[in-house]
Write a structure and sequence with these properties.
Elements lengths: L2 H22 L5 H21 L8 E11 L4 H13 L3 E9 L4 E11 L2 H28 L9 H21 L16 H20 L16 H13 E3 L13 E3 L2
Antiparallel strand pairs: 1-3, 2-3, 4-5
Amino acid sequence: MSAQQINEKKLERAIRKIKHCLALAQSANENEAATALRQAQALMREYRLTEMDVKLSDVGEVESDLYRAKRRPAWDQQLSIAVADAFNCTTLRRRKWSSAKGQVVECATFVGVSPAQNIALYAYEALHTKLTQDRKTYCSGVRSDIHRSQYSAETAGDHFALAWVWEVQSKLKALVPQGDDDSLGHPATGQDLVAIQAQDKALIGEYLATQEIGKSRKGKSVEMDLNAQIAGMLAGQKVELHAGLARGGNETLALSASA
């Protein structure tokens, strides 16, 4: 058996285990979910940094179960863009007919070199849940005059959510290894990571070239509620994304918010 065949079998087993861990990461048990995601990310990083042949990995896409009727709001689109950028993926706005809803719905789709798109999807849905809760709380505060705004509660909530995403975006990027981690015994340089990311982007570009993807339209600039922006930034600062690096190369993605 050739070395290439051995590597292919090793990678196939790793990818199967990653998918299994990602399934367990949806568990309602927080400890089990965190452990499963930690294992998935450790395997993902080991594969990405120790096996440089991108031909052994396929570009894939995953679709979120979260959707909106006709069009997702700007803050939702910005969140998916921020997550995709952090995990070296591309995000698309997928519109489709929902027979269950009887109307056109829109959801986020992530395209990446496996299993990056699965990690991005998990992060997006976890952050989306947290942001939706924070936005709902802020909107309630506007309606009850706890927060003053010249806009409607929903519009002020949208401005709050956009600022929330801006704050969390830099924290997302900090989750990704930057080339100084040698816990797996295979230290990676910044040059290695740039090369991998460039290869991934090239593969994603080739994949998208075969798809019928329309160009997104630029949104109109609008005046923002300053109070809502400040509140959103403060709420975003309280969100902690724990990327704990253990000796075994384990990495945990968890969400929490300080009081």
